[in-house]
Design goal:
alpha+beta, seven-stranded antiparallel beta sheet, two-stranded antiparallel sheet, 7 helices
Length: 274
């Protein structure tokens, strides 16, 4: 009997850990360590400030992942923009997990959060330039669109197996205005409609991204089909930190975008770090 218990208990524990409801906890365990490894050397920390963005636990709904993560890929962004003076750190969050499917609603073709993200980009230019802005201080919309394009194509979709020649990213600006945001004036708000590839696909092999998003379990065809998304970016060059900061939301549904902005992203803070 004791021998059987020694075998049965670990098997039960393993089955629980591998069950769909446990997927989000596996993801959180991995991503909390992974994200922390990038925080200390992020662009914002190197320039003496931090960006605090609420996560999904800040709202009563099961809409977004519990916490915002940090990732840096300056080398990749330099290659993408062909500018070796740029450094990039990305803060991001993605849709909540389905406890039944065991993966994020990022993959759910029936969800308003299909393919959605929010967070912030911090970009510094060692040549003394102000990335995302023209010499007269106005917004350089072409440069601003490069960051979410790089993020979506190179860091998200490519890891799922989408080939470069099949990638789509069409950014059409619908409105711009000057606003106060995240506790300060001087931000440029830019709304856009985006046509880009959906992340929906049937896995053929393991991808590292499945550790954070879960393994997609929706059988959809065609895979990576282009979909209409809605984007919003708040842009500001912060003189005292010599860094361009872009708060962003990319969402499949307009109402979900507005709710994310109102209830989560607008409550972000930029604070000095000694």
């Amino acid at each position: 009997m004791k021998i059987k218990k020694k075998i049965i208990v670990p098997v039960i524990v393993l089955l629980i850990l591998l069950s769909p409801p446990a997927a989000v906890f596996r993801s959180m365990a991995v991503m909390s360590v992974y994200s922390h490894s990038f925080e200390k050397n992020s662009v914002q920390r190197q320039h003496g400030f931090d960006i605090k963005i609420p996560g999904g636990l800040s709202t009563p709904e099961s809409d977004w992942y519990p916490f915002v993560m940090t990732f840096s890929d300056s080398a990749g962004f330099q290659s993408f923009t062909k500018n070796n003076d740029l450094s990039l750190t990305i803060m991001y969050n993605f849709p909540a997990f389905s406890p039944v499917r065991g993966c994020s609603h990022l993959f759910n073709p029936y969800s308003p959060y299909l393919g959605s993200f929010y967070g912030a980009y911090a970009v510094s230019d060692s040549s003394g330039g102000k990335y995302g802005f023209l010499e007269d201080g106005s917004l350089d919309t072409a440069s601003v669109s490069q960051v979410p394009m790089f993020d979506m194509q190179r860091l998200v979709l490519s890891d799922f197996g989408l080939k470069q020649q099949d990638m789509v990213f069409d950014w059409s600006i619908t409105d711009t205005s000057e606003v106060s945001y995240a506790g300060s004036d001087g931000w440029t708000k830019c709304d856009a409609e985006i046509i880009t590839n959906s992340p929906t696909h049937t896995p053929k092999a393991f991808a590292m991204s499945y550790l954070q998003y879960g393994v997609p379990s929706y059988n959809v065809k065609p895979k990576f089909a282009p979909v209409r998304m809605y984007g919003r970016v708040y842009s500001k060059y912060i003189e005292e930190y010599d860094t361009s900061v872009f708060f962003y939301i990319i969402c499949h549904d307009k109402d979900a975008l507005e709710k994310c902005d109102r209830d989560i992203l607008s409550k972000s803070e930029i604070i000095p770090v000694k």
